[in-house]
Amino acid sequence: MRSTPFYYKAFLLSLLITGISCAGKKENKQEQPPTQAPAGMVWVPGGSYTVGSQDEHANRSEGPAYEVKVSGFWMDETEVTNAQFRKFVEATGYKTVAERPVDWEELKKQVPPSTPKPADSLLQPGSLIFHPSEVANLYDLSQWWAWSIGSDWQHPYGPESNIDGKDNHPVVHIAYEDAVAYANWAGKRLPTEIEWEVAARGGKHQSFQWGEELTPEGKYLANFFQGGFPYNNMPKDGFEKSAPVKSYPANAYGLYDMIGNVWEWTSDWYRPDTHVRNSQAQNEKARVNPVGPPRSYDPNDPMTPKRVTKGGSFLCSDQYCSNYRPSARMATAYDSGQEHLGFRLVRSAQ
pTM of the prediction? Predict the structure, then answer.
């Protein structure tokens, strides 16, 4: 029988020394940060936490609920903003995926072999934008998403749009490799799915980040969709599309907009059974700083590699997808940019 690895024993010992308690329905004791906070980042304490969900709002890929152990880390207090991303672009000359011509040789690997090559006029830089319309079938996403040539982080709603006056809005139309490139430049990294969920929960295990009611006492605490989805947006929360960062209260760790506003990339590949595999793993190490599966698998689209995105967005509706919850998870093509997709970064304590 294998003995417990030394580093795992050391980790458990450190938990005992610092007196970190099990999360469950309780809050963890606040582990003290090892250094002064990096600019614009807050400390997420290490400890034992419950992740996943099987409550009435959850879909099958969110369960079961189970316990993990996570080391403390720093996290950006907000989503990366247009102003922050502009500094990166000005310093490096970087072009996002949405600003580059479509590579047919790469694209054809993800479509049936018989798919004919589109006209060169269609293989132009662009991204996906929301196109509201009355629909009869909520399972057909193509009815409200449209490929828009000329849409990118500087033109979020089409080639004629711009981000003037929106420096403090989250940057969008960011593909996975764009987020990684920014992270490398900034000396940070994308969070794992588990790190992201632990941070969003703020030390508690509840249906919503702030409790068990979506709008306690009628208050909107995140930016999501109200009205008849997808054609009748009634922005009772104050914003039809993205909101400036810090428009809503921070959670217990001081993190803003972990729920709603825009979806956020994580570093994990997507599988619908990730939580099942983690919770049933015989090796305890699988539940210590879990890093996700080694490869992607989405049974609904097995040819397209996908990463996990978290948090929901201003387009999440209780009539379609109630993804404004910490446990909610979405499979997103790694090379996709979208009008409601951005990111934030973390830095390990070491």
Answer: 0.85
